[in-house]
Amino acid sequence: MTSELFSTLWQSTLASTVAMLWVMLSRPWMRRCFGAGIAYASWLLVPIAMVAVMLPAPVTTVVVGANEMAMAPMHGVAAASANWTSAQMLLLTWFAGALLMAATLAVQQRRFVQRLGPLQTCVDGSQRAATAVGLPLVYGLWRPRIVLPLDFEQRYNRDEQQLILAHERAHLRAGDIHVNALIAWLRCLYWFNPLLHVAAKLVRQDQEMARDQTVVACFPGQRRRYAETMLKTRLAAEAVPFVCHWSGIGPLKERIAMLKYPGPSRHRRIGGIAVLGLSLVLAGIAAWAAQPARMVVSVAPVLPDAPAAPPAPLAPAVPASLAAPEMPATPAVPPAPPAPPVERTFSGRYEHSHMPPPRYPAQAAKDKVSGEVLLRVLVGSDGSTKQVQVEKSRPAGVFDAAVLEAARQWTFAPKISHGKAVEEWIRVPVTFAMDPENDDADDPGRATAPVRM
């Protein structure tokens, strides 16, 4: 389980890093050609790349001869205590970092909400805070609502108030508060990737520019007034995870500069949507195809040996009273050597499997504990392991986790019925035994798993 988690984190980190670098380099061009909305939507490449590498990897089938698949007992990989300790330390470090990042974001959110003071509900459904810094904004993950500064009517005239409310309502319609929550969640999981924290700030900037473009499209004659309204806003010192508000001097300058240019035409917006859709599809396919292929070993069928030839009958004995010369008896034909034993399935067919050995649990190896586990495995029509169940184990619960982890990686040649591969339940016994002649701590024991019963 630990190795699978680290593998998923590593592959998704690589895929998301490549996607973030691509978006960072292309976002100025996307904004200039297709508008701020398409540039903001291009960040969808990052979660799509993450999800793509978590899908099942491509399968590569390797066919080998029967002689190459000797059914010798499989020695379990008894991991040394140092290896287990390293894996556990890495897991604990990642988990501690995720908790620390989550706590940091939660503290930022709580402090900001406390600075808002008591909120008063207005006639139009918005709320009025007891402060003015960092406002107006959209607040609330489950019930998003607009929060206005205390001096909203005094600081802004009627036209400016209309522009501000249009901007915040655009956030509500687009669901930007949930996008910011997703960004916060990814920052907790991938806290070790510094590029993700940089990308989080750029996403918030593109988000605000996209909403600015929406407002300007609704009020094309109010560009100058909208820029003046931005300058009147008291900016927040830092971006809070679960709100949508204006923050930062640098992004504000860039936003005001963007207002000088006309918005994209209808044809450009359609072209931008087409380019974005194609990019999302290609990015998902590329991330999925870049995964290492899952190898399935298929064994060529083995024909049954011919039955042993019966010995030739002896010639009848000649009576002693006859004077005929004594005839030598026909020598007996020695029987053919018996066919070597083979493992068979319930249906009696010959079977070979690709079964990575289970790990010998470190604590069991240290305590020199042996045991047995009987598994019920559902083999799919593609030879993969669909379900694994522990039918019985001795001692109970000691070796179950190790065997289940290994069994999920096993592949089999599927059962053929009427010319088609079908699913089949099989039983697989696994024996964990200590080697009495070997006291080496690096090789404390072995696990033997016949292919099928």
Automatic annotation (TrEMBL):
<keyword id="KW-1133">Transmembrane helix</keyword>
<feature type="transmembrane region" description="Helical">
    <location>
        <begin position="270"/>
        <end position="290"/>
    </location>
</feature>
<dbReference type="Pfam" id="PF05569">
    <property type="entry name" value="Peptidase_M56"/>
</dbReference>
<dbReference type="GO" id="GO:0055085">
    <property type="term" value="P:transmembrane transport"/>
</dbReference>
<keyword id="KW-0812">Transmembrane</keyword>
<dbReference type="Pfam" id="PF03544">
    <property type="entry name" value="TonB_C"/>
</dbReference>
<dbReference type="InterPro" id="IPR052173">
    <property type="entry name" value="Beta-lactam_resp_regulator"/>
</dbReference>
<feature type="domain" description="TonB C-terminal">
    <location>
        <begin position="345"/>
        <end position="441"/>
    </location>
</feature>
<dbReference type="InterPro" id="IPR008756">
    <property type="entry name" value="Peptidase_M56"/>
</dbReference>
<keyword id="KW-0472">Membrane</keyword>
<dbReference type="InterPro" id="IPR037682">
    <property type="entry name" value="TonB_C"/>
</dbReference>
<feature type="transmembrane region" description="Helical">
    <location>
        <begin position="37"/>
        <end position="66"/>
    </location>
</feature>
<feature type="transmembrane region" description="Helical">
    <location>
        <begin position="86"/>
        <end position="107"/>
    </location>
</feature>
<feature type="transmembrane region" description="Helical">
    <location>
        <begin position="6"/>
        <end position="25"/>
    </location>
</feature>
<dbReference type="GO" id="GO:0016020">
    <property type="term" value="C:membrane"/>
</dbReference>
<dbReference type="InterPro" id="IPR006260">
    <property type="entry name" value="TonB/TolA_C"/>
</dbReference>
<protein>
    <recommendedName>
        <fullName>TonB C-terminal domain-containing protein</fullName>
    </recommendedName>
</protein>
